[in-house]
Design a protein that fits this description.
With 277 residues, the chain is of the alpha+beta class. It has a domain of 175 residues. Helices cover 20% and strands 32% of the residues. The protein contains 4 helices and 12 strands; from the N terminus they run H-E-H-E-E-H-E-E-H-E-E-E-E-E-E-E. The strands form 4 sheets. Strands 1-9-8-2 form a 4-stranded antiparallel sheet. Strand 11 and strand 12 form a beta hairpin. The longest helix is centred in the N-terminal third of the chain and has 21 residues. The radius of gyration is 20 Å and the shape is globular.
Amino acid sequence: MKKKRKLFCEYGPVCYKISLFKECRKKELRDFFQGRRFAKKKSAESLPYLWKGDAKIMVRQLHGVDMTLQQNKVTNLLIAGKKIDGIIVEPGEEFSFWSLVGNPTKRKGYLEGLVISKSNLGKGVGGGLCQMGNMIHWLVLHTPLEVTELHHHSDAIFPDNKRRSPFGTGTSINYKALDYRFKNVTDAPVQVRIWQDDTFLFGEIRSTVPTKYTYELTEEDHHFAKDEDGVFFRNSKVYRHIIDKATNEEIKKELILDNHSKVLYDYDLIPPDEIRA
C-alpha cells in the first residue's frame, strides 16, 4: 500500500503555525470580498426583550482531566466574556467569536486550559473557551438567528457528567481558523449578554421586540453501538421544534444533528442500559 503523503502542517509546530497563519489570511480575504459585516457596537444597557437565557456550570470533574485546567478556564471565560458582553448585532450583521475576542494570548492574561485538537486532549493558553462558544450556540438555537459557521466535535470525548443539553450541540473553536458565527436575519437588533459568578456562566440573547416563537431541542434514538471492529459509537438524532407562542402549536420540527460519534473514553464508563446490539 502506498504511504500517505504528510501534509505541510504535519511536519512540526513551526509548519503548523505557518499553515494556520495562511488559512487565517485566506479567511480574512474571503470575508472582505464577500462583504461580510461583523458586529462591533456594544451597549451596557440590556435590550428590553429576552429571547433566550441560560446558565452552565463552568467547572466539572472530567475523566482524566487535570482540575487546574478547569479552574484556569474560569479566568479565560471571564476575559473573553468581557469582550462579548453587550454586543449588538444589527439586522444583516454577523456575530464572529474571534473578531470580538481576538487572539487569546498569555500577555492578555489568558491561562493554560484544556484544548482538544483532532480529538486529542491537551493544554494550551486560552483553553476552555469552547464553553463560551457552546453557550452562545445553545442560545442561538433557541432563536430565529442563522448559524453561518459551526464546527462540531466529531467524537465522543467525555462520558456524561450532569449533561442537560442534547449530545453534540456544542461547537469547536480555534483561533482564527475555526470560528463561531451567526447572522441576524431578523428585522430587529439583537444583543448578546455574557457574565459569570463563582459557579455558573450566564448567557442571554435579547432584542428590541418580543419573539413570536419558542424553540425546543429534543434528542431521540440515543444509544451506543459497536461496529464490526469492536469500536463503540454514540448515536442520536437532535431535533428543533418551533412553536407558535400565540397558539402553542408546533409549526415545524427539523433535524439539526445526526450524531454518529466515535467513543474515545473508557468503554467501562458507557451505561450498559444504553448499549444497543
